[in-house]
Here is the input.
Amino acid sequence: MSDDHHDHKPTGLGRWLFSTNHKDIGTMYLWFSFIMLFIGGGMAMIIRAELYQPGMQLVDPDFFNQMTTLHGLIMVFGVIMPAFVGFANWLVPMMIGAPDMALPRMNNMSFWILPFAFGTLLSTLFMEGSAPNFGWTFYAPLSTTYGPASTDYFIFGVHLMGISSIMGSINVIVTILNMRAPGMTLMKMPIFVWTWLITAFLLIAVMPVLAGVVTMMLTDRNFGTSFFEAAGGGDPVMFQHVFWFFGHPEVYIMILPSFGIISQIIPTFARKKLFGYSSMVYATASIAILSFIVWAHHMYTVGMPLAGELFFMLATMLIAVPTGVKVFNWTATMWKGSLTFETPMLFSVAFIILFTIGGFSGLMMSITPVDFQYHDTYFIVAHFHYVLVTGALFAIFAGAYYWLPKWTGNMYDETLGKVHFWISLVSVNVLFFPMHFLGLAGMPRRIPDYALQFTDFNQMASIGAFVFGGIQLLFLYIVIKCIRGGEKATDQVWEGAEGLEFEQLPSPAPFHSFTQAPEVK
Amino acid sequence: MSTNDGYYIPEPSKWPIIASLTLFVTVFGAVNTIHGTSFGMPILMIGLISVLAMMYGWFSTVVAESPSYNGQVDVSFRMGMMWFILSEVMFFAAFFGALFYARVLVMPWLGGAGNNAMTHEVLWPTFEAVWPILTNPDNTAFVAPKEAMGAWGLPAINTLLLLTSSVTLTIAHHALRKGERAKLNLWMIVTLALGVAFLVLQVVEYMHAYDDAMGLTLASGIYGSTFFMLTGFHGFHVTIGGIMIAVMLVRCLKGHFTADNHFAFEAAAWYWHFVDVVWLGLFIFVYIL
Ligand code: HEM
Ligand SMILES: [Cu+2]
Here is the structure.
């Protein structure tokens, strides 16, 4: 690392607009995701405010539907996914000993498509008619025959996001396969890199299918095709099949990188090696492969031949096995470790417990006959918020606290971090746990009004929501404070931290990670 | 800049953001064209032209830089292209999936198979579940074609054209590797001509389909939908592949590429073979079966 213009950074706006640097692009991804978190979160606040009481109070039903739709789309495509791409950008080159991503210009293009895509999506709120109001799953015929005019903007917005994701994942795969330092064999790679390799593969395999299904919607809406129209020999159920062929792998796209982050953090604070490294790799791979053959568990009630219902039930249950392997391994890693509970570890432990709750409700819903009762109720809302909020989002928080010192060179404020954690932990459970009961008692999802007997649990959920939403402002403050200054981080940052980024790079990490490949033993 | 290990990391570049912007302008123009706004078409055109200009600019930069690339950069490009082609395969898979689902499951169900006797009886009593569908469930909303598109006329010729073009392209590639430039240029021209001939015949076939005598259109039910979306997207990809081949031809004529350094040429060739394979799938599942 003797290169003298090692740390010369481009300056001004051009640094960001024209960037070819994985760290700057990663930073942009992370900030983008953060902004979207507040926009999508604001929509959730509107939803919960409306649901605070039975009856209609704040918004009309159509606007309520627009909020649930955009909230879902923004959180999935605008928050969780870009945040993980941001992590991949920052970390993958550092973890494998590469100078940068393999295709730096394409990297910047993948990012800069996103503001355009989400600008398009958000602009639909101001269009005549209404914004998309058919749920984030945009089932036909709600989105075809009955979709508002803005649906076409939504479709092209999805196309743009798809292009961005595909280019981003090509970049990640190529970087991992081609840019590893000598000695960094596949089975020596940090688990985070492994999970992203597999995630990127999933993305390349299913984002084009999403592009295909929205294209069919587009032509059904505008050019007279009848893919989803029984009158012409098509079938609205076919929409669901194609959508969920994308959609189920998509939910794993949102969780695999979190598995990676958690698998980095737990060993550090347990001061032990990760238990069962290779079983982690194989579990991740089998989850990815299985995720292609379980999609119709979202469609048990829509009508399928019995053989289909059975097949998808059994395949879905099977996927719980590798997931269980992971949970077992994390627990075994902590077993008899010398544990300390800094904020990243707190979020990680919470992740393990709460994600597992989500996995269990998933297992319940995977049983076809009982899912007939759970389907489209708040039970499933509880399920996917446990896996996505206390799963994916908590992992993002954990990862942010874990690597912020490496990225900025400063320690974050540990006390504030703990406050953020504990308030989030309590409020998120007040928010989502009652939804299980609501769902079991029969409260349908995506409805702005409800019967009186659901009032108590809804009020609890709403209060939890306001607290959880509010406390994220503290997280914003903590991040800004950490960027601005604070106690200097050591190069290793955490006592038990391992990996190239902690062992071979200073804090903050230099602008170009490794201009010369490090030695990997 | 180049790292000490020789991996080329490009300096900050304006192309990516220009690319994002031009893509956005294109889709914005496309939506507005579909919605019939007066400025839709002009914006779409501006978008498309600027996308092409952007690609020209970006790729020219890469061509100019390429002497400073080492073998590892070359591998990155190769891998990138292969994964990109995989994503294209999956895009077609979605439409093939729709075709199979509609044909193998939906059609019999609409015709009363399984536990759907009442669907047929009450909703679509006139529907005849035979592929290619010549009577739609609701034949006034979606007027079915009078006859199906046969396989052994133009489509068979087109199959031959595309298969041959893959062979001629391979001959050109071998010539390039042996440094026989005249032969290279010749076979590139033949390849391009075959591709163009394919597209011309495809247009003829579409005109024939849209003719009243046949009445096979995008709007003639699921058969027409799958037929035109699959062949249409394929034709679009042949067009892209053809543009790539044309660009490679120009570069060959200009004396670009060497016997052992011609990644762009190979990428275009892979793409062309991919388009060829997709066509084989189409020929079997859309035309013959
Ligand atoms: C043990 C593993 C899991 C099982 C067995 C499982 C099972 C299921 C089932 C059966 C449904 C459909 C429920 C219904 O509509 O009636 C469902 C919905 C859902 N799951 Fe999971 N799941 C698992 C893990 C995950 C993970 C890890 C994620 C994401 C990180 C996830 C995200 C979702 C989402 C977003 C939905 C709702 C989709 C919608 O809007 O309709 N699940 N899950
Ligand atoms: Cu699923």
